[in-house]
Write a structure and sequence with these properties.
Length: 434
């Protein structure tokens, strides 16, 4: 297990370019299984979860060519279904959450797929019912083997239908959509997730020959087609990384310009950090955060305490609440952080409390943060990164803290942030990988 030694208290200064979006990449990479023709994808982040998914695709027989550091061409013209029965596949499937999205494309194109319980963050219950109920509605036969946690689906020919999802699952919507594009007839997915990740997938599938309408809404209508062809696709910048950099700039009092953010795709993210008191300027498509010694949390019109909570898109993504929470610890004022979706994502606050933050963990979903207004700096300590976003929140805390911190288990951060130590050191951070 690798660790970061972080010397805190430095102000950072400079420009940073966000990586391509992790959660979009996991969907888009699975979609290459839908065609035998070449698909070229650019702005692919070089991070653990994405590289693991690329290895899984290679195991399945997908031909992978790296044209540039962030650009690959994939050709799924010789997929090996027997690979689904190998130990290597089981290990790869269990390692990441994104592996679940091979099921829809494999089912649609080859009539069968299976998967062990996928990995990903241990942040609470992460059920897959929405995915498999959706496949069943399209006519697939589903089996679950509880002894080895294996999910299997088979179908001769999927048939389009109307379905109302029990929840607007992000990966569930992507998975069902990728099955429906090759089904016979029309599928309507109501209560569909509509994150930019899903919108990007829809646009890519349409370029491959799919007929999807309702993109960006919670009702997707898909007219099935017989086959799909190759295409080119470019990933959006990672909105979670952009939010993390905004939080980092505020906590360390740094002046940072985040380049090429595709600001219209960020939804409520800039607004949320502005409500925490962070000043920012939109310069073309860049976000400039000036150095700020103090920032003050907004209140509601009636003076009551600001509540930052997650919601399905276009609400605030749950993946940024850990960063919002850490930012609030040095703001002037009080905020309630309410993580509605996941029940184990706020426990990392005990480390922030050890660092000197004033936080009351009200219950597994809610924490009240009383900001120090930068009068009392956090103290460097030794801590472990429990999940990807808590990991980055602790890194931000350590960079702002007085003294040295050690963060263990940084593989969790590497799952989603490309060369984070190198990129932050280039603008003045002191992070050593040990
Ligand atoms: C690889 C990937 O893309 N991972 C993202 C994806 O995970 P993933 O697709 O696994 O998450 P889901 O959207 O399925 O659901 C996330 C959690 O929220 C709950 N839920 C979901 C929808 C809803 O309307 N109500 C509700 O309570 C679910 O029960 C679950 O506990 O979306 C999550 C929610 O944005 C993000 O945190 C993950 O980073
Ligand atoms: C929860 C996340 O990832 P995953 O779904 O891959 O575990 C995340 O990206 O914050």
């Amino acid at each position: 297990m690798a660790s970061f030694e972080v010397i805190g208290g430095n102000k950072l200064k400079g420009e940073i370019i966000p990586q391509g979006a992790k959660n979009e990449a996991l969907q888009i990479l699975c979609a290459v299984l839908l065609t035998s023709e070449p698909v070229t994808i650019s702005n692919i982040p070089d991070i653990r979860d994405v590289n693991k998914l690329i290895e899984l695709l290679q195991g399945l027989g997908v031909h992978v060519e790296r044209n540039a550091p962030d650009t690959y061409t994939f050709r799924a013209d010789n997929v090996d279904l027997d690979y689904l029965d190998t130990e290597a596949f089981v290990a790869q499937g269990r390692a990441i959450r994104g592996s679940v999205m091979i099921v829809g494309p494999m089912l649609a194109r080859f009539g069968k797929s299976k998967l062990p319980k996928p990995g990903g963050d241990k942040i609470g219950r992460r059920r897959l019912d929405t995915h498999f109920v959706g496949f069943e509605k399209l006519g697939a036969k589903f089996e679950y083997n509880a002894s080895d946690d294996f999910y299997s689906v088979t179908a001769d020919q999927l048939k389009g239908t109307y379905m109302l999802l029990d929840e607007a699952s992000v990966t569930g919507t992507a998975n069902i959509l990728m099955a429906a594009v090759l089904a016979e007839g029309t599928t309507t997915i109501y209560n569909a997730a509509c994150e930019p990740y899903v919108q990007q997938l829809c646009r890519m599938l349409n370029r491959m020959g799919a007929k999807i309408s309702g993109i960006g809404s919670n009702m997707l209508i898909i007219e099935g087609v017989e086959k799909l062809g190759g295409t080119e696709h470019r990933m959006l910048p990672d909105m979670i990384e952009i939010g993390s950099f905004i939080g980092l700039a505020a906590m360390t009092g740094s002046e940072i310009t985040i380049k090429d953010c595709q600001i219209p795709e960020l939804g409520l993210i800039p607004d949320t950090f502005q409500r925490l008191g962070i000043k920012m300027e939109f310069r073309g498509d860049d976000i400039h955060i000036p150095a700020q010694d103090h920032y003050e949390i907004d209140t509601y019109i009636d003076g009551s305490i600001l509540n930052i909570s997650d919601h399905t898109w276009p609400g605030l993504t749950p993946d940024l609440l850990s960063v919002a929470l850490v930012v609030a610890t040095q703001a002037k004022g009080t905020a309630l952080i309410h993580q509605k979706m996941f029940e184990s994502r706020l426990f990392f606050v005990d480390k922030l409390i050890d660092m000197g933050a004033q936080i009351i963990l009200c219950d597994p979903h809610r924490a009240t943060v009383i900001g120090h207004n930068n009068h009392i700096p956090l103290r460097g300590i030794r801590m472990t990164s429990p999940d990807i976003r808590a990991g980055v929140a602790l890194l931000i805390a350590a960079l702002s803290a007085e003294g040295t911190s050690i963060i263990d288990n940084v593989e969790q951060i590497d799952r989603g942030y490309q060369n984070i130590d190198g990129r932050l050191n280039a603008i003045g951070a002191q992070i050593r990988r040990i």
